[in-house]
Specification:
CATH superfamily of the largest domain in chain A: Bira Bifunctional Protein, Domain 2
Radius of gyration of chain A: 28 Å
Shape of chain A: globular
Largest sheet of chain A: 8 strands, mixed
Strand content of chain A: 15-25%
Oligomer: homodimer
Number of strands of chain A: 16
Distance between the termini of chain A: 44 Å
Helix content of chain A: 40-55%
CATH class of the largest domain in chain A: Alpha Beta
Structural class of chain A: alpha+beta
CATH topology of the largest domain in chain A: BirA Bifunctional Protein, domain 2
Largest interface: A-B, 107 and 107 residues
CATH architecture of the largest domain in chain A: 2-Layer Sandwich
Number of domains of chain A: 2
């Protein structure tokens, strides 16, 4: 049997796991410095928790788990009924009552509603877990992938928005990711735009069309708007809206005038100004990342109601590597009303690709083992064990090649494993109480005492 | 809608996540010091990769994923056929072609077979991931739980067994888990026992019966053996086998005599002696853990062929917290022959329970946030932001209470969150350029400069 893995899933070898863990650990550190706390939810949720939360397309892409024991005679009749319901496109707990997590937001909302009496609000949580989607696999799109979210729920204070922007900046600075732009906007301004061109009932169409501006350009956006029934004067107004340039404050002032008639828009503009003001006071990073008001930012079909944000780097060709926003009623779906939330998400897979393309992963991630002690002189074995014990006791990852293989094979092993140093002890070194340490990158060799080896590798 | 989670699954709040991460990080550190490398495999495997690998019971307990798009007219006929097959108790890729990981060993074997040309052998890997089993949930048994394994594949050297014992000792020492006993045995000795009492064809029955000795006692084991058709003299011989006491070397010598006729047993005894010898040279921990030859150790239905081990603590009433062994042909199932492997597993859920019962989790895990700056004096806000920035820049996790809530509410928040210090800045402190720092545990308060706060919390 020639084994394979399911389409759209991936095995991660040692180098990949270390690199992913480096990304997650870097972000986690920043989350914690800002007072966010980790939670984890089960991979499976009740099917009814997930269904209907991600639109029709989402419902189709949720992985459902077959109930167990269907072939048990006492279950067969029900199972058959459930199967017929599924064929009709309905859900049936008779066939499947559980499903795999589709994102981290709905499980988080469910968690908050279920644990509301144990939690202290505002509740600032982060969560780093895989999610599953039955999407058609393609380059950069997987059926199992990690999400990495931070959200604050139970506070409307705009300081949180500013802190989340700082978290983006600090995390990307930590990862040394260059040329970061953090775009910010406010859904209230988009609402105001729809109001001002007298197309409030077309708000979602306008939002969805604007969201495509980057990808398809203005001509096609205009065509789509016309297609949705907007008149030329309305489309012209939207074009003016999308055309503002300049510094953040200048843009905000232009928008204040353009959308003077909409109270909602004025609130949105005031919120952005307030967020920028908080941000200025809180941002202590020397990162080169820019925070840019961008009225063309729309965030598509998402359920945001206030602040929205999206992060990208211009250093490589790549879509957004993060995004988020505020939603007024996150937990209402699960019976807990009046809980405003604001959150951001990191696109781990894309961040991985960017770091790799720019060669920004620390070289120390290539191997955790610092030295391989080769096994060529049986008389030296006991001495090598003593060295091994001491190195490990000092916290230095060290290996001994246990099989009595040829020297070349052992060296090849060290090389393939990216182990930076090899320690060789023949009869000569044994007599001298030294070990011959080869630097695998430079190829140089040097006889050293155990203490010298510890000094060398303890700092490596 | 009142939300719930699937039976047998768990949400983990911040304290639980931190404690679990503490356990995993402690073990991971030891794995790496011994040269083990991380891999991760997908949560889903092809159904055929898993089926038939865990016995009939296992096959029933595997969670299967429903294929997507069953209600699409062009899939319905096939789906119906697949459903009928499933009702007959067969697998059908027409209805379900994927399943959730049931353990980490089979996916590891599949990984090695698939990636054999990229890997360097011996391949020493560790893996910490959740697995899923449709077992009936009960106290301490979940449908989603973490496994944590380390295995070496591609070497028959017994040094690996000794290193794995050292890993157990060092990891449990790291976690400060007291009264650890590491029992070791060898399946070859059990094979020899079956040979010597002329019941080789009953080897599995004998192994399974002996495995129950701890739980049901000798009388019932003897009854089970009789039930399986063993004669009184055979059962007496097994009783003698199980009765040896004393130091490890003394036990080994007694066994050498009892099973003198079996070459297989002699090989098993020699292997144990060799492992103990390596272990003596490699063990550098001052841990109190004992390594004990225990011929009653059997490891039930598992597919081990040589060394076997099991770890427990006598400090609390709890089953084994780890176990493992050597298997001659791990990857043969997937077409890669002659790959001997040896591995161990940590029982994360039980280790968690033991640490909790013994109150051994470091108190620093209660909160990552070190200080909450309360928000009571609007004039102090800007100054507090400066403090906040500086603390965070020093890597000290700090929060500002963003909403203008009552003082009591803010203090309650800090208390409930287990934040150890609260910083208060009223108009007086603002004038003095100081901050009033309250130790939440002792209740004492002290005015400090920012530098003093950093000195206090940087070491906390």
């Amino acid at each position: 049997m020639k084994p394979t893995i399911p389409q759209g899933t991936r095995d991660f070898g040692p180098a990949e796991v270390r690199r992913r863990q480096y990304i997650l650990a870097s972000i986690k550190k920043v989350f914690e410095i800002y007072g966010f706390q980790p939670i984890e939810t089960p991979s499976m949720e009740q099917l009814e928790t997930l269904m209907g939360k991600y639109g029709e397309e989402g419902d189709r892409l949720i992985f459902k788990i077959l109930n167990n024991g269907l072939n048990d005679p006492k279950n067969q009749e029900k199972a058959r009924k459930g199967f017929e319901q599924v064929l009709e496109g309905k859900n049936s707990t008779l066939l499947t009552e559980r499903a795999l997590r589709y994102d981290l937001t709905i499980p988080f909302a469910r968690f908050v509603a279920m644990n509301q009496h144990q939690l202290s609000f505002p509740f600032k949580r982060y969560q780093m877990q895989p999610v599953w989607r039955a999407d058609r696999p393609q380059r950069g799109r997987y059926r199992e992938f990690w999400q990495c979210d931070a959200d604050v729920v139970g506070s409307t204070a705009l300081l949180h928005e500013a802190e989340l922007i700082c978290i983006y900046q600090q995390a990307f600075a930590q990862l040394q990711l260059p040329e970061i732009t953090i775009k910010i906007n406010n859904r209230k301004i988009l609402t105001g735009l729809a109001e001002c061109c007298e197309a409030s009932e077309r708000l979602m169409d306008i939002t969805v069309a604007i969201d495509k501006l980057d990808k398809i350009g203005w001509e096609k956006v205009a065509a789509e708007l016309a297609n949705k029934g907007l008149q030329k004067n309305q489309i012209d107004f939207i074009q003016t809206y999308l055309g503002f340039e300049g510094q953040n404050e200048s843009k905000l002032q232009q928008m204040e005038q353009l959308l003077a008639k909409s109270e909602t828009a004025q609130t949105g503009i005031a919120e952005l100004r307030s967020i920028l003001n908080y941000h200025q006071q809180l941002n202590s990073t020397s990162a080169e990342s820019r925070v840019e008001v961008d009225f063309t930012l729309a965030r598509g079909l998402n359920y945001y109601t206030g602040f929205i944000t999206e992060v990208s780097t211009t250093a490589v060709k790549m879509g957004s590597i993060g995004g988020g926003g505020r939603y007024d009623d996150l937990t209402g779906l699960f019976g807990l009303k009046n809980m405003s939330g604001v959150g951001i998400s990191f696109g781990i897979d894309r961040i991985y690709d960017v770091l790799e393309e720019l060669n920004l992963f620390p070289s120390s991630l290539k191997s955790s083992t610092k030295i391989l002690l080769v096994n060529i002189e049986p008389l030296a074995e006991q001495q090598l064990y003593r060295y091994l014990n001491r190195l490990r006791a000092e916290g230095i990852a060290a290996e001994f090649y246990a099989d009595a293989a040829k020297f070349d094979k052992q060296m090849k092993y060290a090389d393939k494993r990216n182990i930076p140093y090899v320690g060789i002890m023949g009869s000569e070194e044994l007599n001298e109480q030294l070990i011959n340490v080869k630097n695998m990158e430079s190829g140089t060799q040097q006889k050293m005492s155990l203490e010298e080896v510890i000094a060398l590798l303890g700092n490596a």
